[in-house]
Write a structure and sequence with these properties.
Helix content is about 65%, strand content about 0%. It is an all-alpha fold and about 230 residues long. It has 2 domains: about 120 residues, no CATH class; about 70 residues, no CATH class. α1 packs across α2 and α3 packs antiparallel against α4. It is elongated and about 100 Å long. It starts with a helix and ends in a 10-residue tail after the last helix. About 10% of the residues are buried.
Length: about 230
């Protein structure tokens, strides 16, 4: 089953009590899929979590929509459509307090409905934004940390850098490799860095790197006055 059909089926069950129309439900499904990054490979649990996260906002927006409709109907309660003459004359400019026409009332109700639907869409998008932001940060971090050019750079050094946009990946990778090369050259010139054995593992390289950095810091720490060199 395609992800849109799966989400739609779940929404029909979860949001039945809100009385959403077919087109409204379809728009909500599109918002959930795009906002949560759902795909055809997403599990039923992923779909359930996405719908559960959105439901409070749907309920809140539906409540606001119902209240606006009730207030509009109350405001114009008792309004009676005037009888149209057989041949409508050219309408004069209505005075300020003239009664509203049927078309004017219909337009006001349509505008109110449109505003409420936009409010629902905006609320759903706002609710999904934090999830989308966290997922994007995790994706960019994984993209940077798994780059082949950084396989020889210890994780403790790589973790100091972040990737804010995928298009900047090559630039950040180049910066990391250059900074690490500069650091190693500095350590070599101070007699701190020694090339690791070829049989070492990433874990042992990282531990060795930490020890070298600690030794470098101790040797270069300021000496107290009167201390012997």
């Amino acid at each position: 089953m395609a992800i849109k059909e799966k989400v739609l089926a779940s929404c029909k069950t979860s949001f039945a009590k809100y009385g959403l129309k077919k087109d409204e439900l379809a728009k909500l499904v599109d918002q959930i899929i795009s906002g949560r990054g759902l795909t055809d490979e997403s599990t039923d649990e992923d779909v359930t979590k996405a719908i559960t996260a959105v439901e409070p906002y749907v309920g809140m927006m539906q409540s606001a929509f119902n209240r606006a409709v009730t207030e509009t109907e109350t405001k114009y309660k008792g309004w009676v459509k005037p009888t149209d003459p057989p041949v409508p004359p050219t309408p004069p400019t209505p005075p300020k307090d003239a009664p509203l026409t049927a078309d004017a009332v219909a337009k006001m109700i349509a505008e109110s409905n449109a505003n409420q639907q936009k409010a629902i869409s905006d609320a759903v998008a706002a609710a999904l934004a934090p999830y989308k932001e966290r997922e994007e940060k995790a994706r960019l971090s994984a993209l940077l940390q798994s780059n082949e050019k950084l396989k020889d750079v210890p994780e403790i050094f790589r973790s100091r850098y972040t990737l804010d946009n995928e298009k900047n990946l090559d630039t950040v990778v180049e910066q990391i490799t250059n900074d690490y090369t500069t650091l190693k050259q500095s350590l070599v010139s101070n007699g701190t860095f020694v090339t690791a054995p070829t049989t070492s593992t990433p874990q042992t390289e990282q531990q060795d790197f930490i020890k070298r950095m600690e030794g470098f810091a101790e040797r270069n720490a300021p000496k107290p006055e009167g201390a012997t060199k």
